[in-house]
Amino acid sequence: MTTFAMIRKTMRYFHDLWRNCSLTWFRERNLARNAPIAKIKSPAVMRPTFQGSRLCPACARTALRLPRNAGRMLIWIYRHTLSPLVGFNCRHLPTCSAYGDEAIARFGLWGGGWMTLARILRCHPWGTSGIDNVPVAKPSSATWYRPWRYGRWRGVNAK
């Protein structure tokens, strides 16, 4: 599948998701608003909503994941365009692009991006090598205003 076909398929998916999801969300919302009090669903049965959001919860969740998915799309483009030209040789397992994809999927674009940057900077002729997996949990010292704490700057699978 070409890159353009993949982008077109992804755009079609998000368009259909938004169209179907928003229609059912607004339909349910209007039915609940116009229904008598006895027929309204109890709060335990209703879906959780984002306060002040005009979107349904699934659409809002998708919108919040757009930066993460954009970062993963850049890695996907690198894997299918530049990586075959450069060659498939990496000092670590999993490869740096697979590590970056998993880190961004698990910790978002900000945290996963810093983890990926630290991994790429460790991947040089005098750097580390071996099995280096993405951490299962976010480092306890990592916060959004201290992003360098996300990355493992020395060693492989160090705590």
In brief:
The chain is mainly alpha-helical and 159 residues long.
Q: Helices, strands, pairings?
A:
Layout: H1 3-34, H2 57-64, H3 66-86, E1 92-93, H4 96-122, E2 130-131
Parallel strand pairs: 1-2
Helix pairs in contact: 3-4
Give an account of the 3D structure.
- This protein is mainly alpha-helical and 159 residues long.
- It contains four helices and two strands, in the order H-H-H-E-H-E.
- It has helices at 3-34, 57-64, 66-86, 96-122; strands at residues 92-93, 130-131.
- Strands 1-2 form a two-stranded parallel sheet.
- Helix 3 crosses helix 4.
- The protein is flat.
Spell the H/E element sequence.
HHHEHE
Q: Please report the total strand number as a whole number.
A: 2
Largest sheet: 2 strands, parallel
Q: Into which percent range does the helicity of residues fall?
A: 55-70%
